[in-house]
Design a protein that fits this description.
The structure is a single chain. With 161 residues, this protein is mainly α. It has two domains: 1-83, HAD superfamily/HAD-like (Rossmann fold, 3-Layer(aba) Sandwich); 90-159, no CATH class. It has six helices and three strands, in the order H-H-E-H-E-H-E-H-H. It is elongated and about 70 Å long. The chain crosses the membrane at residues 109-127, 139-159.
């Protein structure tokens, strides 16, 4: 695929619920993953069980290798590995959902933390004539970021599933 055909393939694939690439070479598998990374700016996940899937696994952001009859090449080049395909359901449906919920909580929290910190400085700007003078000392700003960035992560990790 060259030029405009790449974009057309990605557009057609995005209109489908499932895309299956049959009878393609290992290089073409990696190129399909690269197209999605390039045009959709999405996080990609590649799952493979043999040596022919290694280039696709390495190209994707997250690679999952299944140890099977074809050997261990996919497992050795992947980020995560499983013994059987049936363990993928729990990874994608359970742990993937929990990870998404955690990220949403942290995103809301860090937005709130930074908004509160910036709002104080913005409000103080009215009183200081926008002279770039800060409300807090440098050590307090460092302590604020350290405490309000590390403690929620530690607290949530202690009570996480």
């Amino acid at each position: 695929l060259e030029g405009n055909l790449e974009l057309e393939l990605v557009r057609a694939a995005c209109m489908c619920k499932v895309v299956i690439c049959c009878r393609v070479t290992p290089l073409q598998k990696a190129q399909v993953v690269e197209l999605v990374k390039k045009y959709k700016k999405a996080v990609t996940l590649a799952i493979g069980d043999g040596a022919n899937d290694v280039s696709m696994i390495k190209t994707a952001h997250i690679g999952v290798g299944i140890s099977g009859q074809e050997g261990m090449q996919a497992v050795l080049s992947s980020d995560f590995s499983f013994a059987q395909f049936r363990y993928l359901q729990r990874l994608l449906l359970v742990h993937g959902r929990w990870s998404y919920i955690r990220m949403c909580k942290f995103l809301k929290y860090f937005f709130y933390k930074n908004f509160a910190f910036t709002l104080v400085h913005f409000w103080y700007g009215f009183f200081s004539g926008f002279s770039a003078q800060t409300v807090y000392d440098e050590w307090f700003i460092t302590l604020y970021n350290l405490v309000y960035t590390s403690l929620p992560v530690l607290g949530m990790s202690l009570f996480d599933q």
